[in-house]
User: Fold this.
Amino acid sequence: MPVNLVGDAIKLEGLEKSFGDWPVLWDLDLTLGWGQFLVLFGANGVGKSTLLRILSTQARADAGKALIAGHDLRRNPQAVRSRVGVVAHQTFLYDDLTALENLVYYGRLFGLNDPEKKADEALSRLGMDRRSGQRLRNLSHGMQKRVAIARAIMHQPPILLLDEPESGLDRGSVELLKKLLQEWAASGRAVVMTTHDTELGFSWTGQLGLLAEGKLHLRGPEGTGDSTEFHRRVTVSLGASR
Amino acid sequence: MLGNGIRQNITGYLVVLSGLFMLADLYLIFVVAPTDAVLGHVQRVFYFHVPIAIMSFLAFFLVFLASIAYVVRRDGKWDRLAHSCAEVGVVFVTLALLTGIIWGRPLWNTWWTWEPRLTTTLILWLIYVSYLMIRSYASNQQQAARYSAVVGIVGFVDVPIVYYSVVWWRSIHPSPVVGPFAQANALEPIMLWILLFSMVTFLLLFAYLVAERTALRNSEDRLRGMRLVLRRTGR
Amino acid sequence: MMQILRPVLILVGKDILLEWRSRDLVVSVLVFSLLIVVVFNFALNVTPQRVTVLAPGIIWVTFAFAATLAMNRSFVREMEQGGLAGLLLSPVSRDAIFLGKALGSFLFMLLVEAALLPVFGALLNFSVLSFTLVLTIAMATLGFALVGTLFSAIAVQTRSREIMLPVLFFPVILPVIIAAVEASSASIGSEPGVGLNRWLPLLAIFDALFLVICPWVFAVVVEE
Assistant:
């Protein structure tokens, strides 16, 4: 379903974040247009999750400007919250509610009309419709992850933020996810996803970025010489952490 | 950092000034002040106890104001002030409790009584010890600042309610032990003047300690900032 | 008003459903409370002559400890799979999130207290059928829920979360405990009305004050 959106999906200027005296992000700039799909590489601990937490209003940047779908993160976090869908390491779901109940609960919090129907749709999109009546506790890790993804897309957010969404998913589910995210971007919305799986990241079509030393390095346009250089840097950066 | 030199000067003046005042204060208390006719020399602890207790209330009032300022403005300088005042305040309130116990022994004929002021001071001590605990249990500086600001606000608002609840509680449960001098006898004018002087002395001491502690926190934070920059360049 | 009320009700509904499914909290809090009563009986030697003096104290120490247990668990449950983070990600005002969690704890504690009160009445041998006693319990429990929800949101984020909640909670809640004990003994004792006109307003002032302050500072607690 095509969506008409103006301006930039994400615009970051001079973003900074540190924990105590430990720097995580600094001088971070990023402009992501609508219809783009950004795959973000980075070794463990370089701040991929922190960046996504800042973009989704869960953490506060120390300095810098950030606009999400045209809304200032600091001044209007509520507007940002209704416009992003988040998949994180935690599922945000309750073990003793069924998959459907979990989604309906969030649907109501987001103020959706007919949350039951929207929850059903989102679950069937992730192939979970037959398990929707089961309690989360009784679902496998991968299935819980799929419910978590359904939760993130249920309110049709123009921006999806996913933190290593492939972890815990089997091959089939990863394909399903890939299709979903590419459709999301193709419909004029925007997707940001982190991963440390180079094989997976390089095989997906999308803008590629590397997070290292507090900054974001984007790959040059497709087919230019930069491409192989970028490939090398990602491999080196991810290899260095091991 | 502009203004740093000025601040160092102020701290310097304060330490000299409060030192001189303290010497004069000790002379006044132990040599000039008349010995209390009934209580004897123990009564002199009163010149320490009252100013120290008042300074600890002042400290926690400042924590309260600085915490509100931090919540509204999110400027680290307010957190530094609140933290410094809380630390100095806990030292003062501990001393206020100890001197209160020493004073209460001849006055009330018991070490401890659940008298409203004494009880409120004990509760203050507990609240601001938990303030310092939450700071040390937080996972980073920003979290410590946010959580302790909440304790600094909620704790202070609670103090008058604690005080009145204990006052009313006492009116139902009067203490069985009432010493011969439960009513404070009227102060002689000279005693009042010495008390006032002592008040000024402890105010200066308090100001000096807060200034020194804030300067230390400033240095700590600057050091953190430098370490941050060094780590960015990969050191 | 609806903007606050709707999410509050959604949140309370979710908490009730969750507790109904597992029932682990209500069972553990009830058993814990009964244990305290048994221990008190032998520690204080509650005889019929002394019961009106001792019963209010026993009731309120039990309720206060039960409240810290319940509120700590309530937030630990939110932390397990990141439910609180999910909640904070939704476009709901932070006031509503605080009030929803506090109302959930308030209702839960009322339920626990309603179950315990007849047991207390039977074990300690006093009449629980008193309007002022019920009013006192409702008002004091509201105070517990407001302060406890704020401090458990802090405590679960720190190291040593089990100890941090009581350390923060008890000094601040002391006036509520004093007022509740005194108002209860006025209700249970032979002369109802004595002191009530003093303690019930004190509870009301405490509740009103923290109903304003807690939601305001809660926003500072949950945003990083």
Residues 2-222 of chain C form one domain. Chain C touches chain A at residues 6-7, 10-11, 14, 17-18, 21-22, 77, 80-83, 85-93, 223-224 (CB under 8 Å). The radius of gyration of chain C is 18 Å.
